Amino acid sequence: MILNRYLFYQNKHAKMKRTTSLILTGIIAFSITSCRKKGCTDETAANYDEEAKKDDGSCEYDTSYVVPTTYAFSDENGNSTVSYTGQLQRLDMLSEMTVYMKTGNTQGTQLDANQLKSMYANTGYTWDDANGLGMNSTTKQLENKTAGGDQYFIDLFKSYMDSIESVSNSSTAGSMGVPGVVTSTSNPSKMYLQSATGIEYTQLIEKGLMGAVFFYNISSYYLSDAKMNVDNSSAVDAANGKYYTVMEHHWDEAYGYFTSEINYPSAGTDRFWGKYADGREDLLGSATKIVEAFRLGRAAISNDDMETRDAQRAIIRLELEKMIAGTAIHYINSALNNVTDDAIRNHALSEAWAFIDDLRYGYNPMITTAEITNVLNLIGDDFYAVSTTDLNSAKDQLSTIYGMDAIKDNL
Fold first, then answer.
1. Neighbours of 238 (CB within 10 A)
2. What is the 3-state secondary structure (H, E, C) of 242-272?
3. Among the listed residues 284, 310, 316, the one whose alpha carbon sits nearest the alpha carbon of residue 71
4. What is the pTM of this model?
5. 260 CB-contact burial (10 Å; exposed 0-12 / middle 13-18 / buried 19+)
6. What is the band of 45 on the pLDDT scale with cuts at 50, 70, 90?
7. For residues 281 and 259, is the Cβ–Cβ distance under 8 A?
8. Which end of the chain is more exposed for a tag (fewer CB within 10 A), N or C?
């Protein structure tokens, strides 16, 4: 089993650094957290409150420049300086892969691993290119952007593609010990292609690549010092319409992996991280915090304000990671709420598993590799055999690490 091998691989590096809190400690922590003062906790902000213990998104910054209300920036001649077409192409590639994989949710539909691998590497596949991004002439791909080109993770995703083909070849309905399409008992319109142990490879591939490609390249690559400490003095190639500086372009590329829309969150909440950030807006403020940091950071770059830029990239990294952790908890809650419905429980656990694993791709994450492995071990790789006790333990460990104990049951 692929997940077994993966967990074994990660277990070699695992050392537990945290233990589950005692019930009494949890109650005390909850009480303290509930009473903590909220306010602006960013020391670089004009309204920084040294007594605030929890950021409420109210930070304001003294700037001598205008921060636009959408992700639209231009030079003194009115030329747009924003460009992230390659990122939009990759978003569309994963969208098209996901649409194809979901056809396997109809019993009898066989999926082709080679087609998925062709889409993954953008070799020999003809895209629908519904958004007219020139995907059939581009050399952009998802494979070589996976975790910085790490072959272990590339091979892992390819093995998931082999597995989804194998599961789709089943001629019977899925159930415990039997691969195939599993139908929800509470909502028969919900049907998911799942392995004999309940793994939904569509989720491991889609949500996994959201982490290994999109999240990794935002947090660990384009916002890195290597990509930020570059030229910001002149346009790359104004004669050919490239009016942006190298630094501006790198920041834009990070934004393009988050959402395709300049007016997010009015638009762009339909897929990938833009969708899940919007889903965590009510409790975590994810959509607002992330997009405002992207806009302010970009305006800071265009005005050579590197202190503000650095403050905003720290916010983006932190809020993306918290949003992913909150989303993982959300799907653990879904599994707990549907524990007797095999199809929905397995579907939710497949999503939770992928989102938890995504946390490893961030820059200097709050959670360690050992802790990720421990949480995944609690869920295990047989979703028919999972216990509510273990699921609650997995949820508690995540919520404690990310300071979400007070809201964990509502995510």
1. 13
2. ECCCHHHHHHHHHHHHHCCCCCCCCCCCCCH
3. 316
4. 0.88
5. buried
6. confident
7. no
8. N
